[in-house]
Amino acid sequence: MRKFDWDDLQAFLAVVRAGRLTVAARKLGVDHSTLSRRIVGLEEAIGATLFDRRAAGYALTAEGERLVPDAEAMENLAIRIRSRQDDAAQGLTGSVRIGTPEAWGTYFLAPELKELSRLHPELEVELVANPRMFSISKREADIAVSMTRPEKGRLIARRLNDYELGIYAAPGYLAEHGDVTGRRQLEQHRWVGYIEDLMWSSELDYLGEISASLVPQIRISNVISQVQAVAAGVGLGVLPCFLARREPGLVRVLPGEISLTRSYWLLTHADARDLVRVQVVADFIVSRLAARGGDFWMDTA
C-alpha cells in the first residue's frame, strides 16, 4: 500500500474546490496526468474511492465528503506553521487575497492599496471585486467583505460599517415622466434593478422591501452598471448613497420617506488568527474605514 503523502491531500482539496481535474491542475501548476496520479495514490493510501469520475467533472463520494474537513484541518495547520516563519522585523511577505463586492472594492479599497503598499512593500495583494459571495473555507479568499454575517462556519466576523441606500433618478427622466411626490406614484415608473437569479445576496432585494408590487423592467447584474443606467435616464433605481453622490446630477427621490440601510462585514477564517499578514491587512482595512468617517457611507444631505 502506498504511504500517505501531504501533497496528495493538497491535490485532493484542489480537485474538490475546482470540480474538474484540468482546472485544479492549472491552479496547482502541474500536468493533469500528474494530478490524476496523486488522486489515485491518495485513494490507494486511504483504501477508498474519493471521487466519482463523471463527464461533467469529479463528484465526491461519501468517503470523499468525510475526508474534506480533516484535509482542511491539515491545510490550516500547514498554513499556520508557514506563517510563523514570517519575520516581522523584515516586513510582511507573501500574498493576501481579498474578495469584496464590486462597488466597495472599486471605490473604497482599491485607492487605499497605495498606502498598504507603502507600509508593506513586499506584500502581494490580490483584490477580487465581484458581485458574489466568497468562500473563506474553500480558500477563495483570505479576507472577504460580505453584506451578511455568516451564521455558521469557523469564521471571524467584524462589522465594518452601515451605509444608506435611497431611490435615485436622472433629472432628464423626471422631466420626461414627472416628479415623484408620493410613494403611490412609484408603481407608475420604470425601474432598474437586479437580475433575480443572479442576486448573490438576499440583502440586494431592495425593491421588495419598498413594495412587493415593484418589478424592474431593466435588470442588471451589478450595481456599478445600475448607477450608469439610472444616470442615463433609463429609470428609477435603489442605489447606495455613497455611489450616487459620485454621479453628478442624480436626484434623490422621496429622501424623507424612503431610506434603506445595509451593513458590510469583514470575514476571516478562525485559523487565520496566526497568519500575521492576514491579520495586518484586516486591521488596515478596519482602520482606514474608520479614518474615512461614517459620513463616507451614510448620506448626510
TrEMBL record:
Residue span, HTH lysR-type domain: 4-61
Pfam families: HTH_1, LysR_substrate
Keyword terms: DNA-binding, Transcription, Transcription regulation
Bilayer-crossing regions: none
InterPro entries xref list: LysR-type_TF_proteobact-type, LysR_HTH_N, LysR_subst-bd, WH-like_DNA-bd_sf, WH_DNA-bd_sf
Matches recorded under SUPFAM superfamilies: Periplasmic binding protein-like II, Winged helix' DNA-binding domain
Gene3D superfamilies: 3.40.190.290, Winged helix-like DNA-binding domain superfamily/Winged helix DNA-binding domain
Homology family: Belongs to the LysR transcriptional regulatory family.
Protein name: LysR family transcriptional regulator
Species per Swiss-Prot/TrEMBL record: Herbaspirillum chlorophenolicum
